[in-house]
Design goal:
The protein is built from 15 helices and twelve strands. By secondary structure, it is of the alpha/beta class. A seven-stranded mixed beta sheet has the order 1-7-6-5-4-2-3, sandwiched between helices. The protein has a five-stranded mixed beta sheet with strand order 8-9-12-11-10. Helix 7 links the parallel strand 4 and strand 5. Helix 3 packs parallel to helix 10 and helix 4 crosses helix 9. The protein is globular, with a radius of gyration of 22 Å. The mean pLDDT is about 95. It binds pyridoxal-5'-phosphate.
Length: about 400
């Protein structure tokens, strides 16, 4: 009996089978269509394409079957209408914002963002005469005051990189709707869900309009691809797709293939990362060489109650602030700890099966003034840990020896 593939199936099942669960005859693994262009059977195909038939493939910057297969799966697991894949998270974020924002418009965001996104907003948007109004994520009522008839988007990230600040998603949506009502125009809410992923947080359920994600991180999960995704309503994603064609940040078929392969273990990996991160955070909280452990699943986290309300798991990211050793400055101490690690890898990025550590002031938060770092809550002694799926006893032992040996 044929069963309708629906979002009632678990995320794990959707991530493995996509829409092919009952109806598809062909290879079990999606082939890699490593081609830039497509052979027409006759010019009839070209004519059909020119008349707007979306089923005719013509050129891989526009569409590719391997990429399309992953887009379909991503829309399905993210509970969105449709998805478009990009060559990186930054390509996804910037294209999504620019698709609906032009010179003279403004967007609203919080300063606590991934450094790359923040710097793009700070340095690049003003060059295009697009304003950015940063509001305090702990005072979301500021959205109402910051919004005017030229505001297109309220953009948030939660948990934030690297301070793991939690923004109340439902409240951000409520304040945006209120502002939209006052101004008699809809303002879109957009979230970067990279840190939590759909396994731990469902932004659409909380009223968000657009989800963006760096698929380089948890969705990819193996530290071997760059990709990004935008998920939302058909009408909006169509505009993003169109701009993406011109800007050219399209996904490569091989990266899409690897992403599709990774999605099959996505749920398993993220659950294990959640478990490992919580256990490591508890262990590090007891360590005398650590000043502060920031993890949304710890009752000591300033927004623990909000995290509990909107997250089903607390993610694989833990940030610690080391106690400066006698001979070293805070950042030197952090560097020594990173150098002492034997299992965890000293490398940027996050979300992979291997535990990675990085020092925010040397990585995601370079090129920021002291005032900006303060506003972002980033300190010199911070180490951001992306907890992998290794044996938790090995990770705890590794961090303990690294901290105790400074
Ligand atoms: C939260 C977050 N969003 C977006 C990005 C950008 O993603 P990508 O490096 O795939 O462009 C990153 C990269 O570190 C990130 O951490």
């Amino acid at each position: 009996m044929k069963k309708k593939i629906s979002q009632q199936l678990s995320i794990a099942t959707r991530a493995i089978h996509g829409k092919k669960l009952f109806a598809f005859k062909g290879p079990v693994a999606t082939p890699i269509y490593q081609t830039s262009t497509y052979r027409f059977e006759t010019s009839e195909d070209a004519i059909r394409y020119a008349k707007g038939d979306p089923t005719v493939y013509v050129y891989s910057r526009y569409h590719n079957p391997t990429v399309h297969d992953v887009e379909e799966k991503l829309a399905l697991i993210e509970n969105g209408e449709t998805a478009v894949l990009f060559s990186s998270g930054m390509a996804a974020i910037t294209t999504a914002i620019l698709a609906v924002t032009k010179a003279g418009n403004n967007i609203i965001s919080t300063p606590a963002l991934y450094g790359g996104t923040y710097r793009w907003m700070r340095d690049e948007l003003p060059k295009q005469n697009i304003g950015v109004r940063f509001i305090d994520p702990n005072h979301l009522a500021e959205i109402s005051h910051a919004a005017d008839e030229r505001t297109t988007i309220v953009y948030i990230e939660t948990p934030t990189n690297p301070t793991l600040t939690i923004v109340d998603i439902a409240e951000a949506v409520r304040q945006t709707k209120k502002a939209g009502k006052r101004l008699s125009r809809p303002i879109l809410t957009m979230i970067d869900n990279t840190f939590a992923t759909i396994i731990n947080q469902d932004p659409f359920k909380l009223g968000i309009d657009v989800v963006t994600e760096s698929a380089t991180k948890y969705l990819g999960g193996h530290t071997d691809i760059l990709a990004g995704v935008v998920v939302g309503k058909e009408e909006f994603v169509k505009r993003v797709r169109m701009l993406g064609k011109y800007h050219g940040g399209c996904a490569d078929p091989f990266a899409a293939y690897l992403l599709g392969r990774s999605l099959k273990t996505f749920e398993l990996r993220v659950h294990r990362q959640n478990e490992n991160a919580l256990a490591l955070a508890h262990a590090l909280e007891k360590n005398k060489k650590v000043n502060r452990v920031i993890y949304p699943g710890l009752p000591s986290h300033p927004q623990f109650q909000i995290a509990k309300k909107q997250m089903t798991g607390f993610g694989g990211m833990v940030t610690i602030e080391v106690k400066p050793a006698k001979r070293y400055s805070p950042v030197e101490t952090a560097a020594k700890v990173c150098d002492n690690l034997k299992v965890a890898v000293n490398a940027m990025s996050l979300g992979g099966v291997e535990t990675l550590v990085s020092i925010p002031v040397y990585s995601s938060h370079i090129f920021m003034s002291d005032a900006e770092l303060k506003r972002h809550g980033v300190t010199a002694g911070m180490i951001r840990i992306s907890v992998g799926v290794e044996g938790i006893e090995d990770l705890i032992e590794d961090f303990e020896q690294a901290l105790n040996n400074i």
